Amino acid sequence: MLLERRTESPSARTLVLQVDEWAGHLPGQHVDVRLTAEDGYQTARSYSLAAPPDGDRLEITVQRADGGEVSPFLADDLEVGDRVELRGPLGGWFVWRPEDPGPVLLVAGGSGVVPLMAMIRARAGVSRAPFRLIYSVRTPEDRLYAAELRRRAAEDGGLDVSYVYTREAPADSPRPPGRIRADDLVTHGWPPDFEPTCFVCGPTPLVEAVAGLLVGWGHDPGRIRTERFGGS
Amino acid sequence: MTQTETGGPYDGNALAGPLAEVFALEVTAAVARCRGCGRSSPVATLAVYGPDPGLVGRCPGCADVLVRVVRTPDEVWLDLGGMSALRFSFPS
Q1: Helix (H, G, I), strand (E, B) or coil at A159
Q2: Band of residue A44 on the pLDDT scale cut at 50, 70, 90
Q3: Tell me: the pLDDT tens digits for A46-55?
Q4: Binning pLDDT at 50, 70 and 90, where does residue B73 land?
Q5: Which domain holds residue B71?
Q6: Position B53 in a domain
Q7: Do B13 and A46 touch (CB under 8 A)?
Q8: Contact list, B71 vs chain A (CB under 8 Å)
Q9: What is the dihedral of CA A182, A202, A143, A90, to 10 degrees?
């Protein structure tokens, strides 16, 4: 049942959902949301959980895909108090466990930041593993969770956040807009001999590019976890 | 999966939900061996196309079809013919 909707960017909304029974979840896991039309037609989509469990409350962040069948409905039309069918938690590979040792590199493209944000939120007060987030977005206004990330970078010890702007950068940004490159990872990531676990989530081309750059730099492919969600 | 509505390809993480209805153990961390090229890959790393009319998972090495999943309101139809093995780990 939808409890609350928050605007994260012009095209993204966080939905706070109350669920009947929930056994907890790990950061990185997702849920499948299934909608059934009046004529019985069903369709399901996967959404990453954006935050650690809070009792029977879950958060997902939905990026509206123009022409999409489900995301515009969830982002704009579902009303507070409405119910949706939800299954989860799902996935056991793209997850971070707070007891995991060692540094963590998070690389996000667009709304790929959502499961990584769940990791950042779950880490606070629980783990001292150093985290670095490199977040690639088109323009400053496309950033999700910008204010919270700024606060956490200042308050959560051991969290660094850096941005890569691909279309339009803020006026004071020294880096010209462009897709993520090897030197972005070298400047803001962890070197291979620190043996970080790397989580990369975003559109398929970004994920493939970043995973390739990390492996080429010497990172162990066995410690690179990827999650792709389409895109051309 | 942040969300599976952006047109694909996705990856094997998107198979977690459809296959959770079939398997008792978590499937995206399971390792699939490709019958075509012999490569072993975590299911999460398969290249996945769909979700409609069904999900198709291909080997990240040779692109052979390893798994097809189609869900109807009362059935799950699962084709694992492209795999020669699927290895699950018990939860630690």
Answers
A1: strand
A2: confident
A3: 999 999 989 9
A4: confident
A5: 10-87
A6: yes
A7: yes
A8: 44
A9: -140
A2-90: what fold? Answer: Elongation Factor Tu (Ef-tu); domain 3 (2.40.30)
- Non-local CB neighbours of A77 within 8 Å, separated by 6+ positions: none
- CB distance from A183 to chain B under 8 Å? no
**Residue B51: predicted pLDDT:** 78
Q: Residue A38's pLDDT is what?
A: 87
Per CB-CB distance under 8 Å, the chain B contacts of A71 are 3, 5
At residue B2 the predicted structure's pLDDT band, cuts being 50, 70 and 90, is low
3-class SS of residue B33:
strand
Q: What is the DSSP letter of A196?
A: -
Per-domain boundaries in chain A:
2-90, 104-228
Whether A68 shows a pLDDT value over 90: the answer reads no
**Separation between Cα atoms, residue A207 and residue A204, nearest integer Å:** 5
Contacts of A96 by beta carbon, 8 Å cutoff, 6+ apart: A26, A27, A28, A104, A119, A122, A123, A197, A199
Task: Extract the tokens encoding A88.
Answer: 């989860």
Report the domain count for chain B.
1
Query: Looking at the predicted structure, is the pLDDT value of residue B3 above 80?
Result: no
Residue found under tokens 């704009």: A76
CA–CA distances in Å: residue A214 to residues A113, A122, A225, B10, B54: 18, 25, 11, 20, 32
Rounded to the nearest angstrom, the minimum Cα separation between B45 and chain A is 7
Q: Do B10 and A204 touch (CB under 8 A)?
A: yes
Q: Look at domain A104-228 and name its CATH class.
A: alpha beta
Residue B1 in any domain: the answer is: no
Check: CB of residue B2 under 8 Å from CB of residue A111: yes
